[in-house]
Amino acid sequence: MPTDVSNDEHHGRSRRTVLLATGAIGTAALAGCAGGGGDDDERPVTHGRVGTGDVEFDHWTSAFYSPDEDESLQPEAASAMRARFEEWAEENPEYRANLVYQADLDQWESQLVTRASNGEAPASSTLDSVWVPDNREYLQPLNDYVDDIDDFFPFVRETAMEGDDLLAAWFYTGLRCLYYRTDLVEEYGDGDPPRTWDDLLEVGGAIADGEGVAGFTIQMSALDTLPFFWGQGGELVDDDGMPVLGDEDNYDALLSTFEFFADLVEAGVTPQRVGTLDDPAQVGEEAANGQSAMFIGSNSRYQISIEPNDDDPERWDVAEIPMREADQFATGVGGWTEGVYAEDGDVAEAAKSFAAKAVEPETMGRYCEAGSQLPTRESVFDDDEIYSSDTFRFQDQFREFLRNGVARPSAPIYSEAIAEEWVTAKERVFTQQSSPEEAVGTMLDNIADSYDGDVEYDD
Amino acid sequence: MTTEPPAAERSLWARLRRTVGDGTVADFVDRGVSHPLFWLLPALLFIGVFQLYPMVEVFRMSLTDTSLISSQESYVWLENYRRLLGSERFYSTLRVTAIYSVGSIVLQLGLGLGLALAIDYGVRRGLRGPLLTRVVVLSAWVVPGIIIGLVWRIMLLETDVGVVNNALGRLGFEVVPFLSDAGMAVVSVIAAGAWRGTAFSMIMFYAGLKRVPEDLYRAAKVDGAGPVARFRYVTLPQLKPVVFVVTILVTIYSLNSFDLIFALTNGGPGRATEVIALAMYKSAFESYQMGMAAATAVVLLVVTLTVTAVYFRVFDISEEI
């Protein structure tokens, strides 16, 4: 079963739900498997260990990435993880990675940052791509271990690199796109998916009036709506990590985005209640149950929500997220990475080779196919042998969309303030508590207050 | 066979034996045990380690720029307080907290007292059902706030799937924006909180009612007092200390509310239902600004102490307690 974990703004809500639901199991796994202590199994790969060498290091990860089908929270991908680990163990007989499973995402994230700042981080860890900015001060370059960095989609190079240093091995990704009902768009429009905001308002309004359903819905996360801003060329922070979204050009893109939100509600295309919709599954299932005609969803939303719940899933198709102008394109991307904290010595070499293994084309293709995820290397899409062209119904479109992928910025102020303020402002506009100007103004002020330094928006 | 201790030890042994013989050790133990400090020590240690030290540490942290994502920490003294008190968000959360607290106090005291009177009435007249009623109401109290928040969230969904809106739809009403309208969201949060907290008030009031001597009611009846007069001049004065305690506890609980609101609205839409405790959580664990979160905690403590002091003055129950 595909998961919607790769790019969720709230650090993988689906994944969190599963993790919470299996908290007791996770705790038991921690107790039993952390560090692999006392593991006298001769096999090269077990649930708690990879390799049998003398150079030993701890690798924090999730039970989603366990090589053991019985223990994995993603059993369908366990064989791919096992193959990756077995190959690495065979290539590096002197190394041994102890897999330390983390059961709670929030604690995992804060523990990594806290420990890293005290010099007590594990040698390596799996990281949500959105954690990379907060950890970039401590992550070690992987360039000597990762081949052909130019093969990665542009968003990887823009987000996971510091100068020429690749700081995280981004081994799969996900994206956001427009899902739409072809039958309704055909009946109330010209059959083509809306490319611009005006198109969306027009066809969405006609559908809402004619069918009595929501024309368009959207989840209250930043990643689902930031593409509207990014597509206009808007930038959240500058190269130094200072917020610049209030600068002249960015402000225009920002305000127009929030005016579009207000238009959606005022035109009756989007119901006010989306201002409280923070569950991507709910958005997808409402659409599958005929309560909405179009929505922004992740690449796996079709398999998770539409296909199992809609009597006629074939009537759904995907398109690029509508933009202010027809020649603008952007999608939000996420995914998970492997990062290394060990700075030098045998342990650092071992951990770096372990992380790099995850982004070898064969390894990446195998995992993405098994786990229904999207590769971060473009070449992986070319080889049907390592990544089946049938992994996603809309695979060719997704590959195109990824070329316009934009990841959340590599600056602490994004996670400290921008994401939360963006969502709050959006909620205020969708629920008509504030005008777009007021919401944007308050957002900019709050972000400036939170930034550790003086922010003067250039207007 | 015993061996003789060396001279130094022999001397010490002799002194100890003399001391015991004289009863000095026993006296010392007696004096120690009879001193109040001996018995207070475990509690003082517990309070010191688990309450005073964290409180002092929070205050210290509020004077720093401690962050979860930085190893650096420096003293910024009152900067966090200046930023907090100068931000519009703080006053918004303060206003929401005040509305939530007042609403919760009124509803929980009113409903709790009403339920307690009804149960007491039933018990005094030997009616069936008071025990079952108490168990049912108390069940809300034992369920964690997070679960209650999720349950209410499902009940208040703004589609036909929502339990309440589905029922209203069957009666011909439009869908009510319980959570997406700022004002309705505040009402929803207060209602959910009152639903949970009423059980506590009810139990406290019921216990207080059981302590009211039956003679007072009989005497009042003889004097010609009706039910309202008996409630006004017998029940309420007798319940005054309980009302005081319940008011203080419900106030403190309301001011510190977090879990239920976190699950029900997470402070939204916008920040329409964001109370101080939730803002503090978000500062600490979403924005990683521990210094700012600590400053918020200190302000919340000051607010709570101030309100409690006002209660002490208003209720004037020094004779009762």
TrEMBL record, chain A:
Gene3D superfamilies linked to this entry: Periplasmic binding protein-like II
Superkingdom of the source species: Archaea
InterPro entries: Bact_solute-bd_prot1, SBP
PANTHER family for this protein: ARABINOSE-BINDING PROTEIN-RELATED, DIACETYLCHITOBIOSE BINDING PROTEIN DASA
Protein name: Carbohydrate ABC transporter substrate-binding protein, CUT1 family
TrEMBL record, chain B:
Alphabetical list of Pfam families matching this protein: BPD_transp_1
Recorded superkingdom: Archaea
Key word Transmembrane helix present: yes
GO terms, biological process: transmembrane transport
Compartment list: Cell membrane
Keywords from the UniProt entry: Cell membrane, Membrane, Transmembrane, Transmembrane helix, Transport
Membrane spanning residue stretches: 37-56, 98-119, 131-155, 242-264, 290-312
All residue ranges annotated as the ABC transmembrane type-1 domain in the record: 94-311
GO cellular component labels: plasma membrane
Gene3D superfamilies: MetI-like
InterPro entries attached to this UniProt entry: ABC_transporter_permease, MetI-like, MetI-like_sf
Topology in the lipid bilayer: Multi-pass membrane protein
Keyword Transport annotated: yes
Main location: membrane
PANTHER family on file: ABC TRANSPORTER PERMEASE PROTEIN (PTHR30193), INNER MEMBRANE ABC TRANSPORTER PERMEASE PROTEIN YCJO (PTHR30193:SF37)
Protein family per UniProt: Belongs to the binding-protein-dependent transport system permease family.
Annotated protein name in UniProt: Carbohydrate ABC transporter membrane protein 1, CUT1 family
Organism: Natronobacterium haloterrestre (Halobiforma haloterrestris)
